[in-house]
Amino acid sequence: MGFNSIKVATSAVGALLAAATLASAGAAGATDLSGDSIHTFYIYTDQTVNITDYGTFTAPGNGFFFIEGQFSAVETFSLTDAQVTVHGEPSGVAWLPAAVFNGILFVDETKDPHIINVTLDPSTTADGTTISDASWGSNYVALNFASQLWGPSQDAVFDLSFASTPIPSSAPEPATWAMLLVGMGALGCRLRLRRPPAAEVCVALR
């Protein structure tokens, strides 16, 4: 799978967040993620917002991402119909404390599942991980582990809750939503390739 890295000036983040919120509001509801196309991004912020696009997979599924500042560190994740798990390495994980955000973003691009709550699963073993590390909207979940030091093979597990009834659809189609984000990202988006490109898109957190 190819993937690429994007830098977004910090000043552009507010505009991107507003775009994401508008695009995800009011779409048709679903009670889980099963069968949906999930787009995955690793995000690390210092003076700029560095976004690495890891492409899409169909839920349930799993994947990987490299983390900033830890040489050759590859973290893995798994996503079921209603649960997200980030798996730590056997040697442990040091999530850089200099970052405002250091973690992963999942965006449902098939339909809006209308996520209404995220909770920390009791099976979580990752040191320092709490529910405050999660943020979400109706079609995305962002997990921020900045400054955490995980012990060997520790996991962070989050449970997703969904609306039980459909919500009348008024949101743009996924392609329109992506184009909106790209357009807003033109305010401060600068592409920096690290590996063979998969897509050029700017996204942001709530």
Can you give the helix content as a percent range? Answer: 10-25%
Q: Please, what is the average pLDDT?
A: 73
Estimated structural class = mainly beta
Strand content: 35-45%
Distance between the termini: 27 Å
Please provide the count of β strands: 14
What's the story with the biggest beta sheet?
7 strands, antiparallel
Identify the notable features of this structure and list them briefly.
206 residues, mainly beta, 5-stranded antiparallel β-sheet, disordered C terminus
Describe this structure in words.
The protein is mainly β and 206 residues long. The chain has one domain. It is 12% helix and 39% strand. The chain has helices at residues 13-24, 174-185, and strands at 4-9, 37-45, 48-58, 61-66, 74-79, 83-87, 93-94, 102-108, 115-120, 134-137, 140-144, 149-150, 155-162, 189-192. The protein has a seven-stranded antiparallel β-sheet, covered by helices on one side. Mean pLDDT is 73; it is low at 5-29 and 168-206.
How would you concisely characterize the structure shown here?
With 206 residues, this protein is mostly beta strands. It is 12% helix and 39% strand.
SSE blueprint:
Elements: E1 4-9, H1 13-24, E2 37-45, E3 48-58, E4 61-66, E5 74-79, E6 83-87, E7 93-94, E8 102-108, E9 115-120, E10 134-137, E11 140-144, E12 149-150, E13 155-162, H2 174-185, E14 189-192
